[in-house]
Amino acid sequence: MKKGVLLVNLGSPDSPEPKDVKKYLGEFLMDERVIDVPLWARTLLVKGIILNTRPKASAKAYQKIWWDEGSPLIVISERLQKSIQKKTDLPVSLAMRYGSMTIKKGLQELVDKGVDEVFLIPLYPQFAMATTETILVLAEEMRQAHFPQIQIQDLKAFYNDSNYIEVLSNSIAKHLKGKDYEHLLFSYHGVPERHIRKSDITKSHCKIDGSCCATASPAHEFCYRHQCKEVTRLVAEKLNLKEDTYSTSFQSRLGFDPWLRPYTDRTIERLGKEGVKKMAIVTPAFVSDCLETLEEIAMEGEEIFHEMGGKEFTTVPCLNDDQEFVDLISKWINQWATTETVVV
């Protein structure tokens, strides 16, 4: 069998124009693992309300962060793919869950090169219904419908892998070197609380209280909240951060249902009100800088902080195509190539 690798990230509109943003949002928000309500309700909400109101505002946000080369997330992901390709003999392709760089196209590219055994790498450190799970489900649907001759093996969530924690910690330390900050905020993409309960394989452990994430359970394998908190804990331990100098929050909520708390925007606001003058923020749910990091955090977040009296707001870039991150993914790929087993 010939092996190959498919990296999969979230995706992006083809352009920052409202028509392309509307098309992208339609595909993204109609995913039943993103807005997990009955089809009739999702259709009414997305096609009846959101797509008639949000695309113009979202397009303006995309226009603020769009690069000459294109979407930052796409450009950075392509750089990552090219750097990894230099470190392995296996063909490495890139796809997106949403948008024109489809998983079907990525698999087809590998099949055209003779690949019949695929190592699928969702570019998310933590597992979530709306990220990792939707990628794996769609990849399997594509396999069954179009590529029944291939086999797919996926990389498990690597949030607590010691090598990943070291790479992330090194990146944070490098970008904060010489920076005088009072508080480091770990901001993760939010999900509705019900997603946590739906992903609970024990059907009883995840209560989203002050203890369940810190209490050992098989549920943690698929618990996004636990995995985010664990990244914060492990990085803080690695960097020897004092307990009162860092915290965890969740960004990018949508709608009126309860989402994971505390919310990032309100946390930034609170820190400013409490007299913090210098803060830094890192976004470890993303491996590539994108709208949520470049606009929501680096622009809107900084504006909130300054309005609340804050003075210095430092954003730590995502891992992007950091060489240590490239080396780590390449190590996992080459390990899989020789043993078909990757320990993370």
What does this protein look like?
The chain has 12 helices and 8 strands. With 344 residues, it is α/β, with parallel strands linked by helices. α11 links the parallel β7 and β8. Helices cover 47% and strands 14% of the residues. The longest helix is centred in the middle third of the chain and has 18 residues. α4 packs across α12, α7 packs across α9 and α10 packs parallel to α11.
Topology of helices and strands:
Blueprint: E1 3-11, H1 18-29, H2 39-53, H3 55-65, H4 72-85, E2 92-98, H5 103-112, E3 117-122, H6 129-146, E4 151-154, H7 162-176, E5 183-189, H8 193-198, H9 224-238, E6 246-251, H10 264-273, E7 278-282, H11 291-307, E8 312-315, H12 323-339
Helix pairs in contact: 1-2, 1-3, 3-11, 4-12, 7-9, 10-11
Structural class label: alpha/beta
Q: Give a short account of the largest sheet.
A: 4 strands, parallel
How far is it from the N-terminal to the C-terminal residue, by CA? 24 Å
Question: How many helices in DSSP terms?
Answer: 12
Regions with little confidence, pLDDT below 50 for 5+ residues: none
Radius of gyration equals: 20 Å
Can you give the mean pLDDT? 96
Q: Residue share in helices?
A: 40-55%
What letter string, H or E per element, gives the SSE order? EHHHHEHEHEHEHHEHEHEH
How many DSSP-defined strands? 8
Oligomer: single chain
> What form results from the Cα inertia axes?
globular
